[in-house]
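Problem: given the chain below (119 residues), write out its structure.
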Amino acid sequence: MSRGGWTEQPDQESNALLSALGSKYSAEILCAAGTPKSAQALSEDIEIPIATCYRRIEELVDAGLLECEGRQLSEEGRRTNIYRRTLDEIEVDFSSEEPQFSQKRRTEAKNRLQDQRTD
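Solution.
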């Protein structure tokens, strides 16, 4: 269901979403991933251990909140995945028996505009 650019999350995905959002550092990773970044860059930006960052990234990708946007060469010459969040806003409604989620997904146009500002 959609309302004003918001889409509701199916019930089966709610638990994964709530779990991913409830993990320490997940919100910080999502905030930092407004532009494409590697796990190493995210780890450095929010000052968390790289292993923790990789675990949170995996949870966020599994929940559909973060996506791998491609690969690029690191400063050391290794290919690394680049991640970006898939949404800008999420709403949680606890008034029912199960939490209900609505999210405002990022558009490709918004991603392109954001990328132009950071170049």
